[in-house]
Amino acid sequence: MRWLRRAGIAAVLAVLLFVFGWVPYFFGGVATTRRFQFPDKENGGLTPASFDLPFDNVSFRSADGVELHGWWVPADDPVGTVVMVHGLNRSRIEMVKKTPFVHERGWDALLFDLRHHGESGGEATTFGVREKDDVRAAIELARERSPGTLVLWGISLGGASVVMAASEDAGVAGVICDSSFRDLHDTVAHHIRLFRRWRWWLRAVPAWPVTDEVLFWMGHNGHFDPAEADVLAAAGELNGRPALFVANAHDRRVPKEIAFELAEAAGPDAEVLIVPGESHGGAWRNGTAAYESAAASLLEAAQGTSRAAAPTRMAAHEDSR
CA distances (Å), 54 to each of 11, 106, 145, in order? Predict the structure, then answer.
């Protein structure tokens, strides 16, 4: 009986060590230091040349010296530049199908790989904390190459990064933020709840205190403060500039309600577009016509030719809520 009790205690300790030790450490490391690129079959092999657009390969450095790589797509007699930023575990090719839309409206485009993604350098993903500096470096390059109106367009991690960058640069005229999270604590807790449905053994992992432990390891491994990845607070610093917040109606990773919250924080010129579909970041594919219309209005507003009076709720073939 004594050995049975010892075995039972050892088993309990092993489970506790697994749930509250190994699991947070593993997920914290995977999220920040694992360099993984989603196999983007939809856009694989595409470049601006695939759409008969001229482009230059460009490289530049972020504030901390990380080398970034991208494409510069010039327009004839441009009205400004759209800096286009991909999502987590993606690369610049995620944005390439949107480039003809930008080009046809007379805008230059700059597509680039965030740190720790694609061909760019960097040792960790920091969920907007350092990536916003990558966006700011792209802004500097855009201003050097083509003075004029500047708009930022990002998806998921890119969406969070462009809002955070714009919050620190009043010269950014407009923002398109597609499928961004609110803040890092919120999205980690939400994803832990989703992971619990993925495998039966993950049901033993509680959102609390594992969320805080995962955040600790993310910050430790990535050398950043997770509390600084606060997109909702950054949206509040847009100070009424034109902004479009996009979401898929049934995105489990980033619920559509977040787009409304970000728009409310961003001010009276913010709009919300909800398109049908369950994918994360697939709004352009799932609701192209509505997305093009909303993005065209944003570009016009950024030029000062039109201004929306209040946050607008739009939907493509489906109710917003």
Answer: 63, 14, 15
Task: Quick: pLDDT tens for 185-194.
Answer: 999 999 888 8
Q: How far apart are CA 52 and CA 73, in angstroms?
A: 11
Residues with Cβ < 8 Å from 279, sequence gap 6 or more? Answer: 248, 251, 285, 286
> Pairing between strand 107-112 and 270-275?
unpaired
CB 184 within 8 A of CB 212: no
Q: What is the DSSP secondary-structure string of 16-67?
A: HHIIIIIHHHHHHHHHHT-------TTTTT--GGGGT---EEEEEE-TTS-E
CA 95 to chain centre: 12
Q: What is the per-residue pLDDT across 205-230, written as a single tens digit (0 to 9) for each?
A: 787 788 999 999 999 999 999 999 99
Q: Provide the residue ranges of all domains of the chain, joining segments of one domain with +.
A: 2-32+187-222, 48-183+229-315
Interacting residues of 287 by C-beta distance below 8 A, sequence separation 6+: 273, 275, 276, 277, 316, 317
**Is 39:45 a contact under the CB 8 Å cutoff?**
no
Name the DSSP class of 148: S
Residues 226, 230: Cα–Cα separation, whole Å: 8
- At position 269, the amino acid (one-letter code) is D
Residue 218 corresponds to which amino acid? M
Q: Consecutive 10-residue runs of the chain (321 residues): their mean pLDDT?
A: 74 64 79 86 94 98 98 96 97 98 98 98 97 98 95 98 98 97 96 78 76 94 97 96 97 96 94 96 96 98 58 44 32
Indicate the CATH number for domain 48-183+229-315: 3.40.50.1820
